[in-house]
Amino acid sequence: MGKVVVVTSGKGGVGKTTSTAALGAVLAQSGKKVVLIDFDVGLRNLDLVMGAERRVVFDLVNVTQGQAKLSQALIRDKRVESLFLLPASQTRDKDALTEEGVASVINTLREKFDYVLCDSPAGIERGAQLAMRFADEAVIVTNPEVSSVRDSDRIIGLLDSKTLKAEQGESVTKHVLVTRYDAGRAARGEMLSIADVLEILSVPLLGIIPENQGVLRASNVGSPVTLNEPTNAAARAYADAARRLQGDDVPMVTPVEKKGLLNRLLGRRVA
Amino acid sequence: MKLLDFFKRGGSAPVARERLQVLLAYERNNRNQPDLVAVLREEIIAVIAKHVQVNQDDVKITMDRGATTSTLEIDIHIPNAGIKASPAI
User: How many contacts (CB atoms, under 8 Å) link A and B?
Assistant: First the structure.
């Protein structure tokens, strides 16, 4: 039985889709069978970030409504053999997904895959709630910024009340993934530190992804950053996070500011 | 004092942390509960409307949440002509 992991955040634009792609790709590279499901009905983007936008024939809604078989809708990644994508629908009908339909798809995928990663839409509405509904674990993507942390807190509340696990008296295992972390700004007290975020949210840390230009380069070319530039700092942080998700004990490295010679000589940078 | 401020000016992150802690403490307590301010506002207006005609636009309600206590300010402009005749007994 595979694990169902929702990648969620509440706030938009914090890196859910990027993180789903990056984590999924390393998990698959390490030999796991992984499927990524895009739950953002109407605004699908995981296909684009994965570079599979021209290969979408059927989508999640087609499968839940019986217009296509699950095997027809799954897109196999061209780089990693054990990585698959189930794209979201472009329909504008927000009620296109039903709980029963999603349950059936997830239960089938859970039998065949080691990891089912659900890329949640932003917000706390139906789409986000369906994405987390059947999750065993949750990766809460958070930027060190007030509105993102507040929305993460709200999402944690939903994970503890609206998921099937919560209703059955169990709990979804939660992890915080801090993205777009700028070590220099945190050191200068201009950005919430990792300790601040963890103290406020009280959820264990899965990883710290530093702000990195390689992330945008990867999405430009349609490849998860972990495959596109595996040695870059963000990719390595995602790889560590993926190992922690599998239960490995990987020491947490807080990124430090790389100061150039000029900045060193000038001392503290003035904003 | 200004000089002290200059040296103390570390960054805005501690302010962010404190604001979040106060806000989230409140939001966690009030999750799945009716909004207290909305309830108070409606009930207070209902009581006053029994005696005077009050335009909804003339009611100003402000709330200031602190870490341990909050203040609720209700400012109602009652037109002098709006006092209803007391009901005949």
Answer: 43
**Contacts of residue B11 in chain A, CB cutoff 8 Å?**
185, 188-191
Structure confidence by residue, pLDDT tens digits, B58-87: 777 777 777 677 777 888 877 776 555 555
Q: What's the mean pLDDT in B1-20?
A: 72
Q: How far is CA B70 from CA A153, B28, B44, in A?
A: 22, 16, 18
Sheet holding A34-38, edge to edge: A75-76, A83-86, A34-38, A115-119, A3-8, A137-142, A173-181, A205-210
Residues on chain B touching A146 (C-beta within 8 angstroms): 16, 19-20
pLDDT along chain A (271 residues), means of 10: 96 96 98 97 93 91 91 95 95 85 96 98 95 98 96 96 96 97 92 95 96 95 96 96 96 80 58 43
Q: What tokens were used for A22?
A: 């990056």
| Distance (Å, whole) CA B42 – CA B4 | 47
At residue A270, the pLDDT reads: 44
Furthest-apart CA atoms within chain B: distance in Å: 71
Token pair recorded at residue B81: 């002509």
Beta strands in chain A (DSSP E): 3-8, 34-38, 75-76, 83-86, 115-119, 137-142, 173-181, 205-210
Report CB contact under 8 Å: A189, B11: yes
Separation in Å, CA of B21 to nearest CA in chain A: 6
> Distance from B41 to chain A by nearest Cα, in Å?
25
Calpha distance A174→A171 (Å, rounded): 9
Q: Which two tokens stand for residue A137?
A: 């674990």
Tell me how close the Cα of B75 comes to any Cα of chain A, in angstroms: 31
Average pLDDT of B12-21?
90
Q: Quote the pTM value.
A: 0.83
Q: Is B16's CB within 8 Å of A150's CB? A: no
Most B CBs within 10 Å: which of A188, A192, A269, as the mutation test of the B interface? A192
First to last CA, chain B: 66
